[in-house]
Design a protein that fits this description.
Low-confidence stretches: 195-201
Distance between the termini: 55 Å
Helix content: 40-55%
Mean pLDDT: 88
Number of strands: 5
CATH architecture of one domain: 3-Layer(aba) Sandwich
CATH superfamily of one domain: HUPs
Oligomer: single chain
Order of helices and strands: HEHEHEHEHEH
Shape: elongated
CATH class of one domain: Alpha Beta
CATH topology of one domain: Rossmann fold
């Protein structure tokens, strides 16, 4: 009996491990390799902090006229718009009054909640989401859950330190993708296993 139970547990664990690895391969293969939509104008641009190239991309898109305003979510307290523009390029200082910083998010779920509140307050219907390519799938999931009626155009950026093309040869990238895939699974499982609250009049 014990031997049979041990064998069953081992087979189940092995099957789960194989499924996880297969899922990781799928996840890595579907990480965006380029920006698919570079022309659609949206009501706002939203940047999720986590790398300087994200904010620089968001400011550049704002300067190009891809939206009228830019919201940067997850900014450290004490950082001001002028500080960000000074680091990116002084010539963008004229955009300061069109940039809003959000200080209330510590993770992707917080980014989605903070952005959803700002989008609702501003009565906007669309946004271009700027974050790292490996982070985009989870971000889109969280954002669609937080604001299902808002059109979201993904705009991934591609950190030079992330070797997405041959990720299995680079321990740092492999570890990053494995962690991001695990977080994505946790988010999907949590949403699907949690019953939605039905609002009553």
């Amino acid at each position: 009996m014990i031997r049979r139970l041990t064998r069953t547990v081992s087979l189940t664990a092995g099957a789960l491990a194989v499924a996880w690895v297969a899922g990781l391969v799928w996840f890595a293969a579907t990480v965006p390799a380029h920006v698919e939509d570079t022309t659609t104008r949206t009501d706002a641009i939203v940047v999720l902090t986590g790398g300087s190239e994200r904010t620089a991309t968001g400011v550049a898109l704002l300067a190009e006229g891809m939206a009228d305003r830019l919201f940067v979510s997850g900014v450290h307290k004490g950082v001001e718009v002028a500080d960000i523009l000074r680091l990116i390029h002084p010539r963008h200082s004229d955009l300061a009054d069109r940039i809003v910083l959000g200080y209330g998010a510590d993770d992707t779920l917080g980014n989605a909640a903070e952005t959803a509140a700002w989008i609702a307050d501003q009565h906007l219907g669309s946004l271009r989401l700027v974050t790292a390519s490996y982070h985009m799938r989870r971000s889109l999931w969280e954002f669609h859950q937080a604001m299902p009626g808002v059109r979201i155009v993904p705009h991934p950026v591609f950190p030079e330190t992330v070797r997405a093309h041959d990720w299995w040869l680079w321990p740092g990238t492999a570890g990053l993708l494995a962690m991001e895939y695990s977080k994505y699974l946790a988010v999907v499982f949590h949403v699907r296993s949690t019953p939605r609250q039905v609002s009553r009049p």
